[in-house]
Hints:
This protein is α+β, with helices and mostly antiparallel strands. The chain is built from 6 helices and 5 strands. 52% of the residues lie in helices and 22% in strands. The relative contact order is 0.16.
Amino acid sequence: MDVKETPFVLIARVKVKPGKVENYLKIAEEVDKAVEKSEPGMLFHNFDSDPSNELKFIWTEIYKNDDALIFHINNPPVGEYVEKHFELAESIEIEIYGKLATETIDTISQVWGSANIPFKHFKTTNVGYYRNSIFLWSECACEEVVEGDRKRRKRKIHKYVERYSESLLMI
């Protein structure tokens, strides 16, 4: 499989300024709703609080592929969130786990570097896997979000269920 088409995880560690947590939670909720509506390549998007420090939070994001990350970075609601982030937070640090194409790394290094956002890409070893069946489902779900035709959506879902059922029988 092409490296640009593999899923990966992004962790963004945020430290909010004292007295700004409520406002920060508001912008996090706004961007979360916007991402859910506009980014079918974002498979998981979650904002968690650190149990030992009320000012620290973590975004956990799972992307379908490199294009989904590039789309996310260029998504206008995400840009608005980042602007507000710098007003309300002390810091943000980004870590990516999984394979990325060199051109994707170059692009995000340039974008995040110009915004003074620390970024670390953890290199993938030969140990690990992902389940294709889960990503077949996400592909079907993405098509469902993008297309408005109900009959077409039903056919795609039925095709997925047939493919998924066949793969389970092979196990």
